[in-house]
Each structure stands twice: as structure tokens, then as C-alpha cells.
Amino acid sequence: MKKYILFGLSMLMAGSVSVSLSAQDFDDDEPFADKVARRLKDSSKPQYETRTVKGRVLDAATGNPVAGVIVSAYGVGGYSTLTDDDGRYEVAVPTFASALQISSPDHTMAVLGLSANEEQKDLSLYAVTFTPDYRPELDVLNNRDAQNSQYSNAVNVKEEIQKQLGGYVYGTSRSGIPGLGSVLFMQGLNSLNANAQPLVVIDGVILEQQYGRTMLHDGFYNDILTSINPADIEDISVMRNGTALYGTRGANGVILITTRRSHSMTTRITASASAGVSLEPKFYDMMDADQYRSYSSALLSGTGTRNTEFKFLNTDPSYYYYNQYHNNTDWKDKVYRTAVSQNYGINVEGGDDVAQYNLSVGFTSAESNLECNEMNR
Questions:
Q1: Between 178 and which of 95, 103, 261, 375 could a Cys-Cys bridge form, CB atoms 3.0 to 4.6 Å apart?
Q2: Are 218 and 300 within one domain?
Q3: How far is Cα 190 from Cα 110, in angstroms, rounded to an integer?
Q4: How many angstroms separate the CA atoms of 129 and 150, rounded?
Q5: Cα–Cα distances in Å, from 209 out to 224, 229, 240?
């Protein structure tokens, strides 16, 4: 009787699974528990035509077989098994299944494409310290998220998108000057005439990027996203293909930005401060004016020239052209520097049962290694 009670409790804990028993099920001598278990097994999954596949799972670091790994049909429930001590598995999967999902608590999940043969190739699993290439759920929309931008030291949110989703969103920096932003591509450079950059939507409103706006100085660009502090952004979602929602404007992808807002009636004040240093570039050692004057004189002596007077060789301070040819300015020191960036912010959020609020104020100063190219916000 105890086993029937335990089996009944396990049935209740299993969830909403209905098993129908007819009158003839009680006529034979098969135990009731075995009868219910058999019916539950038969009703737990759709009855598809199956084929058997075999293979082996190994550890990528050691090459040893991995036991206890769950091997199941990818995207189809009810068809799974465990690997044995030799890392081998044998499982029946639907004939239309195209891949196996291999998961282990100590390893990242992997997906193995199925071949037409019964014996499949060996699969190596990497430790959980590595970033997984696959997620357990099917990602039909193929979207990606960039999070925790409020802790970023980026001046433009595009820098954070490139850092977190570099393999998904390709970005090219316009220059090393802070605030000029980047050129992002999700579908590649698919046109020489039309704009190929993704659509930007902030809090449900399409942001006009002003790609055709000309600047006063040639080679400079205007990036409206620079006016938004990444610390004020709560979530960034990247949509690979947004034509279903935004028409042709979303054909190059969509970047959905959600700004921070209050999620609690409790008043919370957050203050942040950060600083960074970008070192001055290193250069090759160059000759100064006196060294270059000697070097040029040696070159001229080997040319066979008959001219014996050169303005740059005259060292008399009263000579009219002396100042023109005796400057010793190191232009690297005049142009380049060690850049310092600093960022300060205060955020206040809260509210009551009527309304909630989120207020923020901040200051950002980002110097460039090139003099007179800093950016303040």
C-alpha cells in the first residue's frame, strides 16, 4: 500500500498530466501502479516516427568521457537520455529532428547537428566558465540584450553595445575623439547608396538619427545618442530583423532602448563617480632640429652640388632667416597629451500609489589624447 501512496503523491507533484483508464484496465492482473505508469509514459509525448542515434560526449579540456549528460532532441520534448560511464548515449528521436541538445550542470549547453547516419560525431563540452553559444529556449526572434549600462564608463551607448554584443552588432568607431560615436551594422554594409545602419527606438519612439546632417568641420559627425547618458538607460535590446514591426525602416535591424524608471514606491538616492586615464601614445625617437641639420648637411655633401650656402646652416642669431630655420618645437608634445575622463551622477527614484518618478542629473567630461578635442555633457 505504501508504494501506491508514494506513487499517488508523485503523480500530484508531477503537474497537470491527465491519464484516462478504461474498465478493461482493471480486469487483467497487471498492478495498478504499473498500469498508470505505462499510460503516463504513453501520453507524455506525441507519437512520432523515430530513429536511433548514437554518439559520445567528451570533456573539451581533458578529452575524457563525461557521464550523466542529458542528451535530448532539440526543440522536441520527451526524447532524451543520459550518457553512461564511457560518455556514450543512444536515444530515439523523431525523424524530423535536426539536432541534439546536450546539457550538463558543469558544462555549457551545446547543440549537435544530426547527420543521416546512426553514429554521430563526438561532441566536446566546455566548462561553465566559458560563455555559452546557445540558450535552452528556442530564440525565434533572434534578439540579444545588453544590460548593466548604468555601470558603464562609456560616453556613448553605442560603445556599450559594441562591447557586449560585438559578435552580433559590428561597430566601427568614427575616430578616437569622445562623443563622435560609432557606425553600427547588423546586416552588413548591404548598400552603397542607402543607409545600412539599424533603426533606434527609445521608449517606443523612433529616434531620427540625422545621418544626412552635415557638420561645420569636414570629417566630423553628429550622433544624437551622445546626448543620452548610458547611466540613464535601463535596458538595450537588439532586434536582428524588425520589418514585421517597423516595415522597411527596420530592415537593417532595430535597437530598442528603455530608459530608467522607478519600480518601487520606496525613495532611493544613488550617487556615482568614476574616472579614467588614457595614456599618451608612444612614438619613435625623432631627431631634433640640430641633429636634422647635421643629417641634411651630410646628405647634401654627397649629392655633388656646387651650392655652398644654405640658409639653414647659418648659425648667426642676427641672420635674417635664423628664426625660420632654428625652431626646435616638438609638435608631439604640443598635439598629444594624457587624457583624463570623469563622470558624476545622482539619481533619485520613488513615488506613491498615485505616481512614480525617476530624476537624474549628471556631468561627464571626456578628454581626447588629441588637444582641443574634449567632450563635455
A1: 375
A2: no
A3: 32
A4: 25
A5: 6, 16, 19
What count of other Cβ atoms lies within 10 Å of the Cβ of residue 220? 13
Q: How many CA atoms, within 13 angstroms, populate the side-chain half-sphere of residue 271?
A: 0
The answer for residues whose C-beta is within 8 angstroms of residue 252's C-beta and 6 or more apart is 185, 186, 187, 190, 195, 196, 197, 198, 199
Mean pLDDT across the chain: 82
Residue 226 included in any domain: yes
Average confidence (pLDDT) over 345-369: 92
Dihedral angle computed from the Cα positions of residues 213, 215, 221 and 222, in that order, rounded to the nearest 10 degrees:
-60
CA distances from 367 to 176, 194, 224, 282, 363 (A): 10, 34, 19, 18, 13
| Higher-confidence position of 219 and 120 | 120
H-helix or E-strand spanning residue 41: helix 32-43
CATH code at 54?
2.60.40.1120
Least confident of 42-56, 272-286, 318-332: 42-56
How many other C-beta atoms are found inside a 10 Å radius of the C-beta of residue 196?
Answer: 18
329 three-state secondary structure: coil
Q: Structure pTM? A: 0.56
Q: Is the pLDDT of residue 16 over 60?
A: no
Is the predicted pLDDT of residue 301 greater than 70, yes or no?
yes
Instruction: Label residue 19 by pLDDT band (50, 70, 90).
Output: very low
Burial class (CB in 10 A: 0-12, 13-18, 19+), 364: buried
Alpha carbons within 13 A on the beta-carbon side of 237:
13
Query: pLDDT, tens digit, for every residue of 146-203?
Result: 877 777 778 888 888 888 887 788 888 877 788 887 888 887 777 777 778 899 999 9
Residue 135 falls inside a structural domain: no
Tell me how far apart the alpha carbons of residues 188 and 186 are, in angstroms, rounded to a whole number: 6
